[in-house]
Amino acid sequence: MAATDFLNPIKGFGVTFAMMFKKVATEEYPEAGAPAAPRYHGRHQLNRHPDGLEKCVGCELCAWACPADAIFVEGGNNTEEERFSPGERYGADYQINYLRCIGCGLCIEACPTRSLTMINFYELADDDRQRLIYTKEDLLAPLLPGMEQPPHPMRLGDNEQDYYVNGPELAKAQQQEAKQ
């Protein structure tokens, strides 16, 4: 045995002894969550047009692009009495199973209308499997006045960024100034 083998336990105790005098870093996680990085992509969100209509046209391209088969979309037809989106179709049934979702973002890339984006919300753990299947009501963006979180700005067009960041009145004023 080498002479250094006898010193190894003393070196280990030295590390432990040094750590005893360092300040403890405590995070109050459930009460005060840490902010996510600005470019972090977490939970999905179905966006709306500035007038409140849904952007999803029920094309099912996001479901086809998902490698984990975590998205289910069933399209429906708009009528004059019930209009959910500006086109002739809308996403009647929309579900994302977060037990399967791998967060790859291929569904975001496949969406032709920029209806589906990812927001910075990262708390997706639950002890009930049924609550991890998000339906259209869970995913649909709230209307602007009580908006919980705007969509990720890198996934929106210029006029959509103005609307979500500044609000509808200021976005209209900026568009009018740009026309002049």
Automatic annotation (TrEMBL):
[4Fe-4S] cluster 2 binds at C66, C101, C104, C107. Keywords: 4Fe-4S, Cell membrane, Iron, Iron-sulfur, Membrane, Metal-binding, NAD, Oxidoreductase, Quinone, Repeat, Translocase, Ubiquinone. Residues 146-180 are annotated as: Disordered. The keyword tRNA processing does not apply. GO terms for molecular function: 4 iron, 4 sulfur cluster binding; iron ion binding; NADH dehydrogenase (quinone) (non-electrogenic) activity; quinone binding. It catalyses: a quinone + NADH + 5 H(+)(in) = a quinol + NAD(+) + 4 H(+)(out). It is a peripheral membrane protein. Its cofactor is [4Fe-4S] cluster. Its EC number is 7.1.1.-. SUPFAM superfamilies: 4Fe-4S ferredoxins. Binds 2 [4Fe-4S] clusters per subunit. It holds the Pfam family Fer4_7. [4Fe-4S] cluster 1 binds at C56, C59, C62, C111. It is an enzyme of class 7 (translocase). GO terms for biological process: aerobic respiration. It comes from the Bacteria. Residues 171-180 have a biased composition (Low complexity). Residues 46-76, 92-121 form the 4Fe-4S ferredoxin-type domain. The keyword Translocase applies. It is found in: Cell membrane. Its main location: membrane. NDH-1 shuttles electrons from NADH, via FMN and iron-sulfur (Fe-S) centers, to quinones in the respiratory chain. The immediate electron acceptor for the enzyme in this species is believed to be ubiquinone. Couples the redox reaction to proton translocation (for every two electrons transferred, four hydrogen ions are translocated across the cytoplasmic membrane), and thus conserves the redox energy in a proton gradient. Belongs to the complex I 23 kDa subunit family. NDH-1 is composed of 14 different subunits. Subunits NuoA, H, J, K, L, M, N constitute the membrane sector of the complex. This is NADH-quinone oxidoreductase subunit I. It comes from Amycolatopsis carbonis.
